[in-house]
From TrEMBL:
InterPro entries in the record: P-loop_NTPase
Enzyme Commission number(s) from the entry: 2.7.7.7
Protein name: DNA polymerase III, delta' subunit
Keywords from the named record: Nucleotidyltransferase, Transferase
Keyword Phosphoprotein in record: no
GO function terms (MF aspect): DNA-directed DNA polymerase activity
Source organism: Campylobacter showae RM3277
Length: 206
């Protein structure tokens, strides 16, 4: 989890992705057409609520007022413990240079569509699982699959399996969220993917 600016025109897709990665209990969304000073004060108040676990504050707006941005500069530069920010807008030009200089920018308007895993989750076979994990582990060893890539991969597995008709309990969905948090702590790829894919495999045997 890290603070950043996301340039996107699809706030709902961003929301779904963030919830898939971090879970509803770790995120607070602030959606508005026009981000005003009063909205900035609300964000600051939420940020200063003490948290023992990381919390992500997501600010999405069509327009960010100058006075609102200025009021957030200090808290963005020196956030309270365990607090992270995502500022989402349709163009980086909507944000002051002083805001942009404090956060990395991810331009989703130029980003390719999420790659598919290529797995049939309702007909998984053990040899297929092993081959998939070996492939991703090899990418990890060659430093072509980092922790952010792994987090996106875990989210993709959950989304694709659900789309293919695999049903997950609340406890099983929580395991996906836990796996994402462990990926952030640099847990190895095979240690995270193996139990997830075996869980889905066992569902296919029932």
């Amino acid at each position: 989890m890290r603070s950043k600016i996301v340039i996107t025109s699809d706030f709902e897709a961003l929301k779904e992705e963030i919830l898939g990665l971090y879970g509803v209990n770790s995120v607070r969304f602030f959606f508005t057409e026009d981000f005003l000073l009063e909205n900035a004060k609300e964000v600051a108040a939420e940020a200063y609520i003490a948290e023992s676990e990381p919390k992500l504050l997501v600010l999405c707006a069509k327009n960010f007022r100058v006075e609102a941005q200025n009021s957030l500069l200090k808290i963005i530069e020196e956030p309270p413990k365990n607090i992270f920010f995502i500022i989402a807008c349709e163009s980086k030009n909507m944000l002051l240079p002083t805001v942009r200089s404090r956060l990395v920018t991810e331009n989703r308007l130029e980003k390719k569509q999420r790659e598919k895993t290529g797995l049939d989750y309702k007909r998984l076979e053990l040899k297929e699982i092993c081959a998939f994990i070996d492939e991703k582990s090899a990418l990890e060893r060659s430093e072509k699959l980092g922790k952010n890539d792994l987090k996106e991969l875990i989210a993709a597995i959950a989304l694709e399996a659900t789309a293919q008709g695999v049903k997950f309990s609340a406890e099983e969905l929580e395991y996906f969220f836990k796996a994402v948090r462990l990926a952030e702590l640099n847990t190895k790829t095979h240690a995270l993917l193996t139990p997830i894919l075996l869980m889905i495999y066992e569902k296919g045997l029932r």
